[in-house]
Records
---
Amino acid sequence: MRALQLVSDRSLQLVDLPEPDAPGAGEVQVRVKALALNHIDVWGWRGMAFAKRKMPLVVGAEAAGEIVALGADVRGLKVGQTVSMYGALTCGHCSNCLKGRDNLCENVGGVLGFHVDGFARDVLNMPERLVIPAPEGVTFEEAACAGITFSTVEHMLFDNAKLEKGETVLVHAGGSGIGSAAIRLAKDVGATVITTVGDDEKAAKAEALGADHVINYKTERFEHMVRKITKKVGVDVVFEHVGVDTWQGSLLSMKPGGRLVTCGSTSGVSTQMNLMQLFQRQYKIFGSFGATIRNVADGLEKMGRGVKPVIDTVVPLADFNAGLERLESRKVFGKILVKF
Ligand SMILES: [Zn+2]
């Protein structure tokens, strides 16, 4: 079978590997149909000194496929189903796993495609627990955006920030994979969405996606525009993943009691904080990393009723590298998919 391996920094190789054995007890065999690219793929591909991993490593951190075989004792899934896969090897038996807090697993065995072999291979066996069926009508490309993209946003907006109908949310970088998903999912619950983008072409796309207000952060200070748009009140929730470049402005954009949720720091990790501002304005700040298995299922359910991920481009497996370069360049609007 085909597999795409990272052999050294920025170097990928398409190789021929033996197919896996029949799935064992509690496992299902999945034929991979589509992958979605994320910044975690870019970090892994560039090389990350602190990541414990062995090369060559099969890449691919987010994927969907079709179940082709069931191991013994598998009852909840069927051959032929379209499925998303949860990309971290959680244990399933620690107290956090048992409470459904999968992303706080105490014995996690690594992230697929980053620490351990990932999804960029024709066939793999997965524990049944980590395989989530998609509703009828959800395509492989769409389902490929559930394991990280939609689920991360679900976890941020709804588990952590508890965004509700009628509230206002500031979504940074609305053209990014998670930014575009956040616009869709926030609009779906009836929130007002303000988003930032870096050029006019993306602004038009963000508007078409349903954003109520779009700010070009290259030509306007977003925190000033947010004050203007909200008539000096501020937003209820800030969806952060930019980091140091936007942090201060994000805090200034919130109303008293506002909630900031962050899952990333692409522009830098260290910043200063005014603690008086934090407690006097009663801000709540949430760090969010990954998602729960339920978040994946909830994202798929929403896709099933029409809340679709935004797809920027679909590339063949041979162009995985070009897809990563495109993601790294930030010229994207939505997700880059790799078709198998
Ligand atoms: Zn666990």
---
Amino acid sequence: MAKEGLEMTEETEHMIEKNVAKEPDSAVCAADSKEMRAVLLTGFGGLNKLKVTKKLMPEPQEGEVKIRVKACGLNFLDLMVRQGNIDNPPKTPLVPGFECSGIVEAMGENTKGFEIGDRVMAFMNYNAWAEVVCTPLDWVYKIPDEMTFPEAAAFCMNFVAAYMMLFEVSNLREGMSVLVHSAGGGVGQAVAQLCSTVPNVTVFGTASPFKHEAIRHSVTYLFDRNVDYVAEVRKISPEGVDIVLDCLCGENTGKGLGLLKPLGTYILYGSSNMVTGETKSFFSLAKSWWQVEKVNPIKLYEENKVMAGFSLLNLLFKQGGCSQVKTTVQKLLSLYSEKKIKPIVDSLWALEEVKEAMQRIHDRGNIGKLILDVEKSPTPLGALSTPVHRAKKKKQKKEKIGDSDWRITGQRFHGDPTS
Ligand SMILES: NC(=O)c1ccc[n+]([C@@H]2O[C@H](COP(=O)([O-])OP(=O)(O)OC[C@H]3O[C@@H](n4cnc5c(N)ncnc54)[C@H](OP(=O)(O)O)[C@@H]3O)[C@@H](O)[C@H]2O)c1
């Protein structure tokens, strides 16, 4: 792996905020320097554990590609990492982020297939939220000219996970039906689009009500996430569904398995329900695990049901699944070129706005994917007033930063329930 740059110890978020406030352009002109901006997670916990800091730039090792980052994907998993709400969390401080897009700036030895100047998107095993990253070439993919950098940063995690679950794990075919939770989110929208590439597939989705108008067209039937979706699905399809995609581990396993038709597949791929506030709640964690249904394999055999689990990052980083993932990315890029799929970007945020961006996911506000746009300057204060914005404004006032009233909220493309 690349040698990570040493953190500049005396640099603090506050100092960077002040510097940027004095001279907004300095945020984007680190190109000639040996330093770069990066988001740092200083310890597990709330939003206050995130700051933007300066680090020395990494240099590519053998088999690695150095990328000048343009955009980074913000995933639900990043919230869980921040809280330390994952198995075997790495040590902090760390630079979060699992995917980015940008331009190849240099290559280590043995990096055939890439050239300086190539437009690429990449998976990272952490460290993606920085101006420059180095990552093994097995996790880097060239992107088509027509794909924007934010789209590319919204592509890999959501579409690869959705594709592999639908087509590799559960063999989606014409005429089948699929149930997906959080249908308005990054993965949810990728699932909906991929289902529409197969004739006559029925998609049942759940989502917060305020999103319904915006995403109704993308699924066949949409339910409020708070209603008894099992009863609603049964009213429409008494025999159940062929595929259940469950990212709410614990709450839904029994319901999901119960909804399957014979030979149907239930896939567990997330545990969003374990996030119940800004910091990890041991009570909720214990409750969630306690609620996880005990599945009897003999019952699966008797009822002709398939139960599966899927973790893209484990496949990629721990189980040597690079070539399977690469093949999937190529198939997805073909679908993109044929205009059958298109990543949905919810909003763009400067690195310095990472807390506000994360708060938007906590607030269930996003439709599609949140992107950290490395070249974006923080937006002036004022337009929106969410709890985070208000707290930040108050803090800034207290600290007498003066009238540098120009940071805060990201560029939004959809309605915000908290405004
Ligand atoms: N296994 C894998 O390989 C893999 C890969 C990617 C993602 N995932 C998992 O897939 C799920 C979706 O990921 P994503 O990145 O696309 O995120 P996302 O769906 O965009 O996440 C945000 C949405 O999740 C819903 N949600 C459910 N529980 C929530 C909670 N406790 N707090 C806030 N929002 C909650 C909300 O939508 P509604 O209010 O509309 O329900 C919210 O808008 C996550 O569980 C993630 O870990 C797994």
